[in-house]
Description:
By secondary structure, the chain is an alpha+beta fold. The protein contains 15 helices and 7 strands. The strands form 2 sheets. The protein has a 5-stranded mixed sheet, with helices on one face. A hairpin with a 4-residue loop joins strand 4 (585-593) and strand 5 (598-605). Helix 4 (36-101) packs parallel to helix 6 (133-185), helix 5 (105-128) packs antiparallel against helix 6 (133-185) and helix 9 packs across helix 10.
Amino acid sequence: xxxSSIEASHASEPAGVRPARISGYAVPxxxxxxxxxxxxxxxxxxxxxxxxxxxxxxxxxxxxxNNTWSxxxxxxxxxxxxxxxDSESGRIQSxxxxxxxxxxxxxLAEVESRWNALQSNLIPLAAEDPVLRPATRSLSDITxxxxxxxxxxxxxxxxxxxxxxxxxxxxxxxxxxxYSIIESTIEGRNSLLSPSLRKSRENFxxxxxxINAYYLSLSAASARExxxxxVAIENTLPxxxxxxxxxxxxxxxxxxxxxATQLRRGVDNLAAAFDKQSKLLRDQxxxxxxxxxxxxxxxxxxxxxxxNAAQERLDQSLKTIYVLIAGVTALFLLFxxxxxxxxxxxxxxxxxxxxxxxxxxxxxxxxxxxxxxDANDEIGVMARAIEVFRENAIAKVEAExxxxxxxxxxxxxxxxxxxxxxxxxxxxxxxxxxxxxxxVAHEVNNPVGISLTVASSLARRCEMLADELExxxxxxxxxxxxxxxxxxxxxxLVSNLQRAGELIQSFKQVAVDxxxxxxxxxxxxxxxxxxxxxxxxxxNKSRVKLAFTCEPGITxxxxxxxxxxVVTNVVLNAVAHAYEPGxxxxxxIRAAAEDAKQVAIVFSDxxxxxxxxxxxxxxxxxxTTRRRQGGTGLGLHIVHNIVTGRLGGRISxxxxxxxxxxFRVVIPxxxxxxxxxxxxxxx
Length: 683
């Protein structure tokens, strides 16, 4: 469609179409006169007003809830204080009982500690609480009576121990000695005193057991048993006095009668002390605790009633607040929905018209002008922008033909560019080949130059010897010296020419080699061990140890020759570069299945390691750190080419200075069948 035809269609459009379309919008005229940003802002202002009103309601409601909740918290805090006082007093009572059954300094210290805590913490805390303040004095008095009873009990306990030591244990020890004296004075088994003495001794033993049981357990049965046995002893002593055989027996029996009477009285006194102790426990400690429990129970009931009242007030406040906020929110929500619908229709309807105009333009209908270009709001601005877009589309139609012509010219230029790119690639290859040739020339130049120098020197010596021979001046010593010099020269020639030959052989492996290399099936472990065996004679000259481990049963369908060369080059490179001459170390080779299709061979040494720059360039051809020590820089480059080319795998290196070096080679069990060039690329 041409621009002139489109403009002609514009000229034929009736002038009254656009105003009629605008007046047909189903939105209030007033809203359409307000800019869209003010319409949207009005929604935000209405929402903000609603939020502020709700915030005010929530603030008032929160104040009411906060006051009610504060009352509830105070009541619960008072209830916790009462519960703690009751719990602590009960604990003190329990500890007092335990102390009088199993006295120990630890129990006494705990009783005093809890009493001090009760008096210094809980009672003052209750005194500060307005709800508990009236009952604080009563709680403090009950606590003091409880602890006062404990002090009285301790005094009785001390008195009981004094009675037991002085009135029970002392007569008991003396009676034991008197029984021993009487038994020692009895001669023969026919003494009339023996049966009565034996019976009395048995009563005495039973009385001792009962006394100890009574002292430990306060058992009334034990006390009665002890008194019964002591009375039996007192009753048998007059009979025993009549049966006495000598004065010692008589005196001892009289003393025994006196001590038995003292012991029985001591038991009676001990029983009286224990009765007093039990009475104090009942009247002072247990009664005080009962009073404390009753007081705390009454306070707890009062706190519970207060808590229930506060909870009811809180529930009622929350219910009132919920109803109020829900009603206000519903009213405002209805207003916002209606207002939002009006605003949305004032925006959506003109936008739909713009969308229709845009769809028409996209479909290629460029005849009709965009509706609403005369409106004063933002949609009018958009309509005018779309109208400009329509005009640009018309210009685009006119430019498409020119674009097609430009495309043809561009394609021709692109073909020329590809040709130029191919030329640059070939030039780059030639530059790389030039670098390779330069490296070869540099490496071969040294041994060839030395050989040339030696050969020249040997030629001059031959001429000098011939002259001496013609003059008849040749001596035996001179001939011997000549032969010796020739031998040294020949040795140097052979050594340097062999060096040159080795260098050329290495360089041949870098160059393109399309010759056939034997491929066969072999066992990885067996082949690697054969290669290592061929390396060990050379390694024996150094102090580097070589170890090899491999999973058994790994079968390879690959090229054993290139693989063996990889192992040889990596090991020799480690020996030459990882260690100083004479330095000890170790090289470990580990081979294992990577997965069902690949195997991994890891070469690890404990040598000097590599710096980051050396590690980055380690596989580059002719890069070496021993340029002046015989290194060519081709060993690892050949390894890289073989692994990535002929063997179809990959190689990586990990090393840090002083941490050794690890080469990891991963190759497939079945090598690729493509022919591979000497540079490692498949062709």
